[in-house]
Amino acid sequence: MAMPKSNQLPRIEMWEPISTAQPSEMDRSNTRELLKLMEDVELYECHEEAVKRQEVLGRLDQIVKAWVKKVTEAKGYNEEMVGKANVVIFTFGSYRLGVNGPCADIDTLCVGSRHVTREEDFFGELHRMQAELPEVQELHPVPDAFVPVMKFKFNGVSIDLLYAKLGLWTIPEDLNISLPSLLLDLDEKSVLSLNGSRVTDKILHMVPNVQNFQTTLRCIRYWSKQRGIYSNVAGFLGGINWAVLVAWGSLALQSWDPKRNFRDKKHLMPIITPVYPCTNSSYYVSLSTLYIMQQEFQRGNEICEAMDTNATGWNTLFEPSHFFEAYKNYLQIDITAQNDMKT
Ligand SMILES: Nc1ncnc2c1ncn2[C@@H]1O[C@H](COP(=O)(O)OP(=O)(O)OP(=O)(O)O)[C@@H](O)[C@H]1O
Ligand SMILES: [Mg+2]
């Protein structure tokens, strides 16, 4: 496969907006058509599904709160401590960003106090409690993952549950996980587990218009799935990468440092997460997946530019890629299931 030389592609400096002009009537009409198409292809979950997810989260919250009381009591703490023992559930990922489709998983984080451990209590007692619940199916603990996770379905809704153990003795219900001081003296896995929620909150906090951000991200996610370039594990870009790129791209380069770190220098398409510790979220991108994505960006750009001058419709942009279809058939897998996999 012939690779383009880097100087063959036009470079755009992203520190300033490309344009601050108001939308034209043509832009407004294109936006209306795009929103209609996004509804037609069912990118939005219906009201019943949204309510069901909220109920599942409410039930999960009750379960983990019962769990923390149980383990606190079992460890011999006094009544007052058992009474105060608490954990809080946060959501992150596409659900928290408000861009999840009808069948997407819910990424959740359970934050607990210093006496509640990941190994014994989370992957031990909570796992046992979950295994006995009739609402819980397909329970898979993955304690050895880079970010340890308990995967399960709760009344049919896929949940990824992480655990972070803070240095606090009690966890307030209104805990602010964005505070940098919370990271003091935490174990590495807790820092990694907190990172997803902190990143998601930061993105939502920093985008100037959340609704426009959500619509754009939903559209980009649909386009990249249709064109076969949505997958972190396959070396393309996944949910977090597209979210950072749509939000503001190349800000926040503090921690990732190609000058000081040899490994950082080798990254081909660094997309840096916005909270400390900043990491490159797209380390799987290879020369060949980068090339395929550059072709897709160019194709998308040409179609969007043509829409200003002739009747090319959104359907052309979202046409499924032949490469993607062939790839799917070859592997004989449901690619949407693969997209849900964690890195
Ligand atoms: N490579 C990564 N680097 C940093 N954070 C990551 C990475 N992969 C996942 N995360 C964190 O985990 C969250 C959930 O990841 P996930 O792959 O489920 O993406 P998502 O945005 O929820 O999209 P999807 O709808 O496909 O599940 C991300 O929003 C991000 O905060
Ligand atoms: Mg997710």
CATH superfamily of the largest domain: Beta Polymerase, domain 2
Helical stretch count?
13
Task: Characterize the overall form.
Answer: globular
End-to-end Cα distance = 26 Å
What does this structure look like?
This is polynucleotide adenylyltransferase. Its cofactor is Mg(2+); Mn(2+). With 343 residues, this protein is of the alpha+beta class. It folds into 2 domains: 47-206, Beta Polymerase, domain 2 (2-Layer Sandwich), CATH 3.30.460; 207-339, Poly(a)-polymerase, middle domain. Helix content is 47%, strand content 10%. It has 13 helices and 5 strands. The chain has helices spanning 25-40, 47-74, 79-84, 93-97, 118-131, 188-206, 210-226, 239-247, 262-265, 287-309, 314-317, 322-331, 335-339, and strands spanning 88-92, 106-112, 136-142, 149-154, 157-165. The chain has a 5-stranded mixed sheet, with helices on both faces. Helix 2 packs across helix 5 (118-131) and helix 7 (210-226) packs across helix 8 (239-247). The chain starts with 24 loop residues before the first helix and ends with a helix. Mean pLDDT is 87; it is low at 1-7, 9-14, 250-254 and 335-343. Adenosine-5'-triphosphate (ATP) binds next to helix 4, helix 6 and helix 8.
